[in-house]
Amino acid sequence: MSEENRDLNTKDLMTMDSNKADSAGTTDAGKMLAFYKGLYEKEKEKNEKLTRELTDLEAEHAELSLKWDNLKNSLIYRIIWPFRLAWSHFKNACIRIKRLGSFSEVRRKIKSKRIERAAYKYHGTESFLKGEELEKAKAKAHEFTKKHVFSILVPLYNTPEKFLRELLDSVEAQIYGGWELCFADGSDEEHSYVGEIVAEYASKDEGWSFGDGKPGKSRIKYKKLDHNGGISENTNACFELATGDYYALMDHDDLLHPSAFYEYMKVLEDKDAWFIYSDEATFKGESINDMVTLHFKPDFAPDNLRANNYICHLSAFKRELVDRVGKFRSECDGSQDHDLILRLTHEAIKHGDGVVHVPHILYYWRSHAGSTAADINAKTYAINAAKKAVASSLESDGFTGFEIESSKAFATIFRIRYRLVARPLVSIVIPNREHEDDLRRCIDSILTRTSYENYEIVVVENGSTSRGIRDYYEELKKAPCIKIIDVSQDKFNYSELINKGVKASSGEYLILLNNDTEVITRSWIEELMMYAQRPDVGAVGCKLYYPDHSIQHAGVVIGLGAHRTAGHVHYKLASTNLGYMGRLCYAQNFTAVTGACLMASKADLDACGGLDEDFAVALNDVDLCLKLRHMGRVNVFTPFAELFHYESASRGSDVSGEDADRASRYEQESEAFRKKWAEDLEKGDPYFNPNFSLDYSNFTLKASPAPMVM
Questions:
Q1: DSSP symbol at 511
Q2: 462: Cβ–Cβ under 8 A, 6 or more apart, which residues?
Q3: Which CATH superfamily is domain 426-683 in?
Q4: pTM exceeding 0.90
Q5: Fewer C-beta neighbours within 10 Å, C or N terminus of the chain?
Q6: CA dist 275 → 256, 313, 361 (Å)
Q7: Do domains 127-396 and 426-683 have the same CATH topology?
Q8: Average pLDDT over the chain, rounded to whole?
Q9: 288 vs 102, which has greater pLDDT?
């Protein structure tokens, strides 16, 4: 950071004021006025210089643009087009190789993609039970002690005959027969065949029973509406036909996996689930095997759901939930599912087992011309409706003054800017030993790029002896917002340093920060604070980049990696990558976030005992996040607070083969972590779908699907 910029920093000015007052014993108003006038003139001169440079650059740009236009229209440019295309592909391949770091990483990436493509087939018709397995499942379906009935609500409107027949066939193929199809038809007269097809299937379904010898009426119910009232009004008409104790939502052109309600019943045999959802796939063409997107979802994640309707299909929920929160609202047409799911899950988590996720693809979402699955721009009103749905949910939770805007991933995936209810003191705790350059870069970036004003920096000094760092400490002590505390250790213990730094801090909120980081986002503290201020939130983490702008941290998953302790997802991807299903573009829940930059309230840190000093170097941050989660908190990763991280500059890598002691220490702490959190590791990370391989950080599918337990 240049001396010129540092001179203009508010806190530096405060320090200079303080120094002048100390030396003179009084403040000379005239001298201070002259001082600030000098700064103003200096800034004015710099601005004039920048204006001249901008003018010159604009003229140069115009000249280059003209030359480029002439070149593009030339014959030679058109002739060499194939060679330029080949060069472009070669250059892009080199860039990808460079981002991955080595050819071994390239091979690993290619292998993971091959595995993923091969795994697609396991989630289509090949996943349907057949033969002996199918017969066992049917027998078990009759033996369920509970006899729940799922009322499938399907609003019809000019549904193509092929789509309607395929939908009906997929429902009739259900292994568990406790369902009823409730159709409300708003089709026009030209599509009268819709009602005729439904009647045809209804007549064939007469006499079905649970196997108790009591034949019943057809499970297919139909109502012809006198007008098309829109998707919410039409679906609400389906509720009037429903008699089941659970409702399920289905679009009129989609398909179900034969095991859909069988899998849901296996859940309900053991749990009092109020809301159940599954994974889903989008397909094109004639067959569900023509899948274009497989969406493997996390377990219930409230922050994910506010930003993105990741739950969507197949949603099934208790009748009692609808009685409490209401049905579809026509003002949210286009995003009516998101609106209803937000209200239903908000109420469901208060009861029983709340919201349960079944990690299997049980719903196939057809993508065709005009469908939202194909292009959200085909239904532009859906974007505003989705914003309205999210805003309504936030307001019901007591939030005010927030802003909702579409992300670069997708128009209905949102960035939510929450209003800060207060601006309390934030203590930034930075352990350090030697490494003057790293610490100077870190603190300079905080002082010159931080828009949040009410903070202090607590440097935890640990045995530095060099003249350079000691002189730098003397500089820092002159700043009123910085304090240095000395902690002597015979053996390095990061957790102990942090705990002592926290104890010496005065802030209501803490940021644990590595000395080898550098602030990018000016509003980084505000971005962290907007989540940390919530009483339900424990730790909040940011997005960290390596110096080459590849991702170092974007959330932590337990069980990930060779040691099966914890690992970072989206690791080493480019900073511009949107992430799996756009997950690098919105704030979301994770089991853990890295301690390289972590915000939490001091009250929560004290309540959970701070960092466990048995984890001297590694996994102390993950351990902390798990303790917070067991206190009932959710942890949040936000991609909108960005920093560089010059990874372990102060001590090197814990797993490096260059240092056997470090590798041994890491293995010891890994073993202690696996023992302490054995139950959590056994259950698996709730925010990382079990269909993903724990060997890869980038949401690579396993070679075979997660088993459906019989």
A1: E
A2: 431, 432, 433, 487, 488, 489, 492, 497
A3: Spore Coat Polysaccharide Biosynthesis Protein SpsA; Chain A (3.90.550.10)
A4: no
A5: C
A6: 18, 12, 17
A7: yes
A8: 88
A9: 288
